[in-house]
Write a structure and sequence with these properties.
This protein is an all-alpha fold and 169 residues long. Helix content is 82%, strand content 0%. The mean pLDDT is 82.
């Protein structure tokens, strides 16, 4: 979405259609998680997470955490979770497991995603219009940023694999 915002700043795309398409894309992806939760039993999902979670870096603890969020906050978590970076990925599954009304799930998901995509698009738009100013600074740090990004990814993957292997939090 930030890159789409950058393209908006160059005149290549229009701001509101970018946000709309981003929110619709998020909704379609969320339907997949919802369908998995709706059509599969919880024991099957937990077995799949135990068996294949290490490949997509999803732990049983993260699954349980998202289920607790859903039971604590109810249907409205489908809206609010779309604004939260980590939870937004996992909340569709518990919504499907709880057999939340699909229309309500879709409405909350779309509206929450609309806010998130608008924010990310605006950030890209704002930074895109400042590219000539900040571009020189970023080029000085390309190597440093690249190395930091690689180490961050490796740290994250290593951390997730340790959790999956040893069951630690």
């Amino acid at each position: 979405m930030p890159f789409a915002g950058f393209l908006v700043s160059t005149g290549g795309l229009a701001f509101f259609p970018v946000i709309l398409v981003g929110a619709l894309g998020n909704l379609v992806g969320s339907w997949i998680g919802y369908a998995i939760g709706y059509f599969l039993e919880e024991t099957i999902i937990l077995n799949l997470i135990k068996k294949y979670g290490k490949f997509i870096l999803v732990t049983e603890n993260e699954y349980n955490h998202s289920m607790k969020w859903f039971s604590k906050f109810g249907d409205k978590i489908a809206f609010f979770s779309r604004i939260l970076p980590a939870v937004r990925t996992f909340i569709s599954l518990p919504c499907g497991l709880a057999e939340m009304n699909l229309f309500k799930f879709s409405t909350y998901t779309f509206l929450g995603s609309l806010i998130w995509t608008a924010l990310l698009t605006y950030i890209g738009f704002y930074l895109g219009s400042k590219w000539n100013t900040i571009g020189g600074y970023f080029h000085k740090f390309d190597l440093v940023l690249g190395v930091l990004l690689i180490f961050s990814i490796l740290f994250y993957v290593n951390h997730k694999l340790k959790i999956l292997k040893f069951g630690k939090k």
